[in-house]
Amino acid sequence: MKLASTLLVFVVSALLALGLVMLYSATMFHRSGEFWSAQLLWCCIGLVVCLGAAMSDYQLLKKVSVPALVLALLLLVAVMIPGIGLERNGARRWLQLPGTTFQPSEFAKLAVIIALAHYCERKGRRMGTFKNGLLIPGMVLGLFLGLIFIEPDWGAMALLAAVCGLMLILAGTKIRYMAPPVIGVMCAGGYLLSQNTVRLNRITSWLDPEGTKQGVGYQAWQSLIALGSGGTTGLGLGNGRQKLGFVPEHQTDFIFSVIGEELGLITTMAVVVGFVLFLVCGAFIAMRARDFFGFLLASGLTFLIGLQAFINIGVVTSMLPNKGLPLPFISRGGTNLVAMLFCVGVLLSIARFANQQGRSKADKLKDSDSYSPFRVGTQP
Fold first, then answer.
1. What is the DSSP letter of 173?
2. DSSP H or E stretch at residue 31
3. What is this structure's pTM?
4. Distance between CA 273 and CA 104 in Å, rounded?
5. What is the Cα–Cα distance from 332 to 15, expressed in whole angstroms?
6. Is the preceding peptide bond at 152 cis, omega within 30 degrees of 0?
7. Residue 124 has what DSSP assignment?
């Protein structure tokens, strides 16, 4: 466990350092001082939050799971109210705070994952029934997904749905219960997508990037040019050309393209390996957790960061259509950075208390109703 925790800290520290360096390089001709100093401040705040979460017992999250869920719901409702929520580029996703903005969906993702882990632990073997395993959590989750959908933030909605679905499967919800509603949601999503010109154009540009490179596919095409021009070792830090206005939002969703152009294939592959190591460490910590709540919580937070990272990389490399999700620990964005570092702190807390408790307690809980990583999918 000590090796997993140490490796996790090393990987996150390396990604944070790379993020700060690349953000300065990406914005050196575009208000670099303001962007970089703000990101550094958020990084410091996030590290304090991470340290606080790591030093605390993650079991305390059970006590705040319901209040946090209610607060997240109220914030998602508030962001939709004109005059309270900020609208940018046709989306209403932010709340104005003194000197900065706050994105409630980032807090909502954490609140839902914590509450779902607590709920699944309480239900135990009853997660194998339709009512407890799908109906009740599905109704609550549907409410949050619906509010995020109408912001609109389809990328965050899909990410949260995928993470929670994986958590439910690990908790023992039968796949035969989940398959019909998932298929129904996918069909409804396909229909809504066909009626949404902006997102439909993103799909068509993804299918034909070269044919749409002068229009809706411009951003993705320029990103590929940046990655290709970097070659194996890159053009050198600060020497990238695509960041000079050719790749829109290069400091947020497409910062991976700046890394590829300036530092080359070697560094981009190192970033991918870093996130793979993060997934491995998170999975190891989850399997060694002292209870089922820790197992599910660590799994959910690991899925959240890992899926978001690989979706972002997939978008930048044109393997996936544009989702608008930042690259964890690297992209500019204070709310997401603090949320990701909180996840890391909770993972370290789970690892720390697993070490303190030893494996004896976990072994005693293997066959109980409240701990089941070794019996996933075996509920009657």
1. -
2. none
3. 0.88
4. 30
5. 13
6. yes
7. G
Count Cβ neighbours within 10 Å for each residue of 228-259 and write b for 16 or more, e otherwise.
ebbeeebbeeeebebbeebbeebbbbbbbbbb
More confident: 170 or 240: 170
Rounded to whole angstroms, the Cα distance separating 374 from 369 reads 12
What type of residue sits at position 245? G
Residue 236 DSSP class: -
Give per-residue pLDDT as tens, 261-291: 999 999 999 999 999 999 999 999 999 999 9
What angle, 0 to 180 degrees and rounded to 10, lies between the N-to-C axes of helices 136-149 and 61-78? 40
Beta bridge partner(s), residue 87: 92
Name the β-bridge partners of 101: 96
Contact 232/265 with Cβ under 8 angstroms? yes
Q: Are 316 and 256 in contact (CB under 8 A)?
A: yes
Give the integer Cα–Cα distance in Å for 332 and 192.
Answer: 30
Residue appearing with tokens 């100093």: 37
Q: Indicate the residue type of 65.
A: S
Helix (H) or strand (E) segment spanning residue 96: strand 91-97
Q: Does the bond joining 180 to the residue before it have cis omega, within 30 degrees of 0?
A: no
What tens digit of pLDDT does each residue of 76-131 get? 998 888 778 787 766 778 787 777 778 889 999 999 999 999 999 999 888 989 99
Question: How open is the CA angle 243-246-250, to the nearest 5 degrees?
Answer: 45
Backbone angles phi, psi at 285, to 5 degrees: -65, -40
Which residue pairs from 266-271 have beta carbons closer than 8 angstroms and sit at least 24 positions apart in sequence?
A: 266/232, 266/233, 266/234, 267/18, 267/234, 268/227, 268/230, 271/15, 271/18, 271/313, 271/330
